[in-house]
Amino acid sequence: MNESRPGSISEASLAEGGAATPGHGGTRAGYAPSYAESQFDTIVRRQRIRPQGALKFPQKGGFDLARIPSENEEKHPPPRLEREFEFAGWGSMTYLEVEGSELQAADARRRERERKVGTGQMGLVMGTAVAGVAVAGSPYYAFPAVVAVAGVFSPISLLISGLLLSFWRPIMAELASALPTNGANYLYLLNGSRSKLLATIGAVITLLDDAVIAVVSAATASSYLAEQGHLPFSYEVLTVIILVGITVLCFSGVRNTAGATSICLIIHLSCMFALFIAGVVHWGRNGNAILRENWEAGQPGSATKIAKEIFYGVCLGFLGATGFESTPDYNSQIRPGLFPSIIRNLQVITILVNAPVMLVTYAVLPSSEILGNASVLNSVAQTAAGPALRIIMTVNAGLILCAGILTGELGSI
Length: 413
Hints:
It is a single chain. The chain is mainly alpha-helical. Helices cover 65% and strands 2% of the residues. A two-stranded antiparallel ribbon has the order 1-4. It has a two-stranded antiparallel ribbon with strand order 2-3.
């Protein structure tokens, strides 16, 4: 590392063959000046005294602020400036030569640091599990709402709502790559619109959405648990207890929480797979009689009404994707490059869980038992496989819905 000041001869100029003469920018005839010398001459030339009134020219009476440390001041006169703050000083110049071995060593240190940091962040499984528990657990409270408006067309509505996420995924991936920090909708709106009011409104809506996820999950879990036995208190009190307990777990750290949600997601997907297989076996044994009866009884009578029911079902079907929008809330904890894969996994879970299970539900239970049934999955388990699977689904409901509370609370922090 060498430092050069005006008036000195840099090693770079000697290496280029420019044997400099004393003074700034002075070189022997036949040799081109170095880059530093040519730039210095340009600076000096622009600071020379020019006629009065010209643009950027100093007025008469200007004072000498600094003197060029040159051996030939007649050739390079000092600048004449009217105000002292206009001259920041001549500064200095530094040359740094980096060898190939030093670059390789620095690159190795960078890779080692990235490897260690990546170990402490959420990978594909944990990143999917944090929002996946809300997505996978949504059938417990989404199915009754969708059935109420879509009827026998509920499987179609849920399938369409899951496929429509394909148009949302690229947008979310692009925003997450452009702003890889927590904050989601607030940061997106603030940087995109430059409006703090619009960004604040988006943040408030996001917080309300996260709060709704937590409260609805807690209330649904309480109702499922209360159905299995007599509680010494009301299910509203149990809802508050669950919310407080999950909040304490949430503050233990996002990565520890991700580990717990990963276990809950694996257990839940296993239970839903068992319920689906049991429903398909029951369907195969009893034939299409119940499904045909439900289909015929649920026809509204006109194509317009059918389209209307499917449309309403699609709108409420996005309850089955609850948690999908919370993924950017913990974007900074996800390893670089994994966000697109995580939201792809969430869409796959939405499509493979919601529509097939709803179809099996209509093949196992008559419409009269499905409509107005808050614990419809428990009824499917009871009919298809008996009380054992019903108890398993009840315990699973408590686990996955409590894990869904984590997603809502993590999005709010």
